[in-house]
Amino acid sequence: MNSAAAIGTTTLLLNKKNNGQTNVKKDDALKLTPPKTGTIPVAFVISPYWTVIDAMGPWEVFQDTGIDGRGAFELFTVAESLEPVTGSAGIKVVPNFTFANAPQPKVIVIGAQAGRAPAMFDWLKKQSETADVVMSVCTGAFILAQSGLIDGKTATTHHDFFDQFEKKHPKVALKRGLRFVEEKKFSSAGGLTSGIDLALRVVERYFGRETAEKTAFYMEYQSKGWIA
């Protein structure tokens, strides 16, 4: 560990490995309890111009995580309607569910995207009450901030948008230059590949370091930016 900083009454550790930096709670106080049976439902929020790697990077992590010979997570996309949603470079995805009928998730992933529908914010606020983790990737942090859910909390976003985020959302403590930052429920990644790091960290919080390392090894993912 390279340095420590106090935010409120909680000590946060700044970790640098392979040029990756993370902001995580001391002594891993953020450990999550997985279900005794079944899988962990993960909702990926998508709307027009969603950035593919922001969603599909974490998607790959969660789909590749196995426990006792079975998949540990159940993944689905959710959007305002079931119409195809166009993402970066023209990719089109038909959502699995709408905000009106989606299953209750334990993990929510929000990447960069253009949508700001009231239904999205209503769903996000309601589902965050029972979710274990709500994580943004890249400028998905703007959606979390606009929802009011991270007022008084820490967050990060893509470096191109630091100044804009600080000006638009002064109630959120922006952390610059980090791969990701964590609160007990709300986490945010800088963007693009750092979403993979944050997803691996979520795996670690549920199942431990060894399982996360096995997932990263299977993926041929050599960055250590997710390791606290």
Write the layout of secondary structure elements.
Layout lengths: L2 E5 L2 E8 L2 E6 L14 E6 L6 H13 L1 E2 L2 E2 L1 E7 L5 E2 L5 E2 L3 E2 L8 E4 L7 H11 L4 E5 L2 H8 L6 E2 L6 H7 L4 E2 L5 E3 L3 E4 L4 H14 L1 H10 L10
Helix pairs in contact: 1-5, 5-6
Q: Which CATH top level class fits? A: Alpha Beta
**What fraction of residues sit in β-strands?**
25-35%
CATH topology: Rossmann fold
Radius of gyration: 16 Å
Concise account of the structure shown:
The protein has 228 residues and is of the alpha/beta class. Helix content is 28%, strand content 27%.
Describe the structure in your own words.
A hairpin with a 3-residue loop joins strand 15 (180-182) and strand 16. Mean pLDDT is 90; it is low at 1-19. This protein has helices spanning 52-64, 118-128, 140-147, 162-168, 194-207, 209-218; strands at residues 3-7, 10-17, 20-25, 40-45, 66-67, 70-71, 73-79, 85-86, 92-93, 97-98, 107-110, 133-137, 154-155, 173-174, 180-182, 186-189. The longest helix is centred in the last third of the chain and has 14 residues, at 194-207. It has one domain (28-218): Rossmann fold. It has 228 residues and is of the alpha/beta class.
What descriptors fit this protein?
228 residues; two-stranded antiparallel sheet; globular; Rossmann fold; alpha/beta
